[in-house]
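## retry 2 of 3
previous attempt timed out at serialization; input unchanged, resubmitting
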Amino acid sequence: MNVLKEVVEDYEEQLNYSSDPDARVGHKTADSSFFGYKTHIAMSDERIITAAVITTGEKSDGKYLKELVEKSRATGIEVTSVIGDTAYSEKENIQYAKKEEFQLISKLNPLITQGGRAKEDEFEFNKDAGMYVCKAGHMAIRKARTNKKNVGKNQRQTYYFDTEKCKVCTFREGCYTEGAKSKTYSVTIKSTEHKEQETFQNSDEFKEQARSRYKIEAKNSELKHGHGYDTASSAGLFGMEIQGATTIFAVNLKRILTLLKEKE
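## retry succeeded, writing output
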């Protein structure tokens, strides 16, 4: 039954690829996925969307912090703090926030708190699934801790990938050794990275500001359930960008009218 299920899923995935060449498979949890696109948005405290970046479904949220901040600033927004989930707490974003002098209210993933990562440009951590995804968009199928505890070496969290996918992957050169029985990616678990961010996230100031993060989830829900943004109306990334622009414009306009009424 499991083999049959995998065959059906592969067939459905290929069918989707053929109907929309730009769409890709993304993951919300280790057991669930979606086929389509992602909309990365920035929003002001007044719940007006100030910037948006639309990408294919497999892209990591945290890679678009800089673009969202720059787009928001271009509209005249003064960015003093950015609130986001754990996807935004990667090292480059912490350095960018420090350089641009704004506070990054983003909790570190427990694995990041305990250690560092190598090849961040090839493997990205999916916070929802708790797994790493390679640059081809394939998610690890299992994970395990390796190295014995308290024996002089840091423990490592090792992620195992499906070698059947690696064998035919377009990025296999330099990543997968021909004939290898396994493909893994390991993370050293240690406590030397992100110390300043870890200290900040334990502060009362961080916790107070983090309480406002629910607003972005509510806005996402409004876009999807109130304006049909949960389903693409046409195929292709350009079509999704048009849909995103018009939907966000409508949602922003409604919010502006609401704010104006409150001032009357």
